[in-house]
Design goal:
The protein is mainly beta. It has five helices and 25 strands.
Length: 627
């Protein structure tokens, strides 16, 4: 059959497209276990994974069978035919199931075909086989995996049919007679040097025990197998099995691999263990998985053994003798299968399947926050405070240095009703005193006059700091309260008049005291008293101003009274009143030599003492110049 390069490119393109939309599935070997062609991985299928497989290998090796001797009877040896077109096809159907995450079970049914153009094709069933694999428990990803695998074959297949042996241990050398001839069915036979007990099956129970080790380095996997295959028939040899496989996975859906597999008969081992004496093959190939669970493996298989040529006789077909080699030089192996999970695995048992679980080994905390990703959210709001300590696990702490350990954002640290984003003083309450109450800052001195509002009688109006009652916080716009504002008052602390710009009214120039009698109107004394009242002092101040203005004036102060007292008593009282006036002027600065005090008494009345008005006029102070 011609197979053009164009067709090959088309097939490779289709295979490549399968990997684009694929998801990670395990590569299943011919036994239905996780592995490759003739080697097994220590990894398992996983809980509830179901696998169906169809595996095959085919050889068309002209050198595999070299002679077919056909004779009618034991004595007649008339036909010798050279075989050049011997073909052998093996099919294995299998089903596997992951009972737990670390325990698998499989069942296999082999079917064998022998194809030659010169002879009729022959087919037969192999023995049904049950496999179990037990892995070291543990579901977390790790480098090392270890497992035990066992198989048990039941004698259920076709035995004495076909031209080729299917297992190395089905071949066993026949005993020899004293002349060195092989004894076939009790009769020496010079045409054969060996015997075969079966083609498709041993017709006996067989069991296999393997120890499996896998090392998983992400992209590179190494598998090592070692064990034995035992047949419950003393005439059939047992096998020692060794296998190693190197697997390179550039993606989770595509792998290159190479296997080495050796089956060595126990009898051969007794005579000196040599790998090349028995079955020893290398199997390079590729493996693919697709998006729908389909998987495919394609591999070549090439012998490395010495591949001795032997002759044997089929026990049933006694008319046929064969000269052949132990195994074909090459094979092509192909595998097609499907695997899927009946129940999605959930390693952390958080009710989220691993395929959808971003953290398959850490259970979801189911706290109402992103509970569908499978990851525990130890800090939902990502504020660096663990939810176990966070009073507000779904609201991020604002980290504003105010109660940042409770995990709750404090939108209004000082609880003054103004959010921190608008609050210029987030940690100090607004005082709400009607002054700048929207900035969030307490205004301890609203008017900035350095008088605290608690002491400021006018907190919204700054003190004028003019030295007049500056501690009350109120501006004194008219300190002397003369009706003239301080900013226009030249004498702000002394009441004045507008004509003098707030200063007191200026007195007219002092008048010169005239000569002769000058009666000081307005001076009065009560009863027998000589104390000066305020009105008297004002009048005396005018006298003082005049004497100050005219320094040469000298005056005599005369005190007069009515006749209500005796003449002597009146004189004494007037003396005291005159002296009181004189002393007042002296205290203000008038020299004593310019003053003279004289008490006249009632001797010089100026009005009638019989009337009240007259007596008032007689009680008087007179000034007389004596300069």
């Amino acid at each position: 059959m011609r197979f053009s390069l164009k067709k090959m490119v088309r097939v490779l393109t289709i295979l490549s497209s399968l990997t684009v939309y694929s998801f990670s599935e395990p590569f299943i070997n011919q036994s239905g276990q996780v592995g490759l062609i003739q080697s097994s991985s220590a990894q398992t299928l996983g809980r509830t994974r179901l696998v169906f497989n169809l595996s095959s290998d085919f050889t068309y090796d002209p050198g595999y069978i070299s002679l077919l001797l056909d004779r009618v009877s034991m004595e007649d040896q008339t036909l010798v035919e050279v075989i050049t077109d011997a073909g052998m096809l093996n099919l294995v159907t299998s089903a596997s199931f992951g009972i737990t995450s670390f325990f698998d079970a499989s069942v296999l049914m082999p079917v064998h075909f022998d194809l030659m153009s010169s002879y009729p094709p022959v087919a037969g069933l192999g023995d049904i086989e049950f496999d179990l694999k037990l892995r070291i428990p543990g579901d977390k990803p790790r480098v090392f995996h270890g497992a035990l695998q066992t198989a048990l074959s039941f004698p259920s297949g076709t035995r004495y049919t076909g031209y080729f042996i299917r297992h190395l241990n089905y071949y066993n050398e026949s005993p020899v007679d004293s002349t060195g001839l092989r004894i076939i069915n009790g009769v020496p036979d010079s045409l054969v040097n060996g015997s075969v007990v079966s083609c498709f099956t041993s017709s006996k129970f067989e069991t296999e025990f393997l120890g499996l080790i896998s090392l998983n380095f992400k992209w590179l996997l190494l598998h090592l197998n070692s064990g034995v295959r035992l047949v419950f028939d003393k005439n059939i040899d047992n096998l020692f099995i060794m296998a190693a496989a190197l697997e390179l996975r550039p993606s989770s859906n595509f792998a290159f691999f190479t296997e080495l597999r050796s089956d060595t008969r126990f009898s051969n081992m007794k005579n000196g263990f040599t790998l090349l004496n028995d079955h020893f093959r290398i199997n390079p190939g590729i493996a693919l998985t697709a998006f729908n669970g389909m998987n495919m493996t394609l591999a070549g298989s090439f012998k490395l053994s010495s591949n001795k040529e032997i002759s044997y006789r089929d026990v049933e077909n006694s008319a046929k003798r064969f000269t052949t080699k132990l195994e074909p030089s090459w094979k092509v192996a192909f595998h097609l299968g499907w695997s899927g999970l009946l129940v999605q695995p959930d390693r952390d048992k958080d009710q989220i399947p691993d395929i959808s679980d971003a953290c398959p080994d850490d259970p979801e905390d189911i706290d109402g926050f992103q509970d569908n990703d499978g990851c525990p959210d130890l800090d939902n709001d990502h504020d660096a405070i663990a939810d176990a300590m966070d009073k507000c696990p779904n609201e991020a702490e604002d980290m504003d240095d105010f109660e940042d350990d409770d995990g709750c954002p404090d939108p209004d640290n000082d609880n003054d009703g103004i959010l921190d984003i608008y609050d210029k003083c987030p940690n100090e309450k607004e005082d709400f005193d009607g002054y700048n109450d929207h900035d969030g800052c307490p205004d301890y001195d609203n008017d900035n006059d350095n008088v605290p509002d608690s002491l400021d009688k006018c907190p919204l109006v700054p003190e004028d700091i003019d030295g007049f009652e500056d501690d009350d916080g109120c501006p004194d716009v008219d300190n002397d309260m003369d009706g003239i504002l301080d900013n226009a008052d030249r004498c702000p602390d002394v009441p004045g008049v507008a004509e003098e710009f707030g200063c007191p009214q200026r007195k007219p120039p002092a008048k010169e005291i005239k000569r002769g009698r000058v009666i000081l109107r307005g001076i009065s004394f009560s009863g027998g008293n000589w104390a000066l009242n305020a009105e008297t002092k004002i009048i005396l101040d005018d006298v003082y101003e005049s004497m100050l203005a005219f320094p040469d004036i000298k005056i005599e102060i005369q005190a007069h009274t009515d006749n209500s007292l005796s003449r002597e008593s009146s004189a004494q009282l007037c003396e005291k009143r005159a002296k009181a006036c004189s002393d007042y002027l002296i205290e203000k600065g008038i020299p004593s030599y310019r003053l003279r005090a004289t008490g006249i008494g009632s001797a010089m009345p100026i009005a009638d003492n019989n009337s009240v008005h007259g007596r008032q006029l007689n009680n008087r102070i007179e000034l007389h110049r004596f300069d």
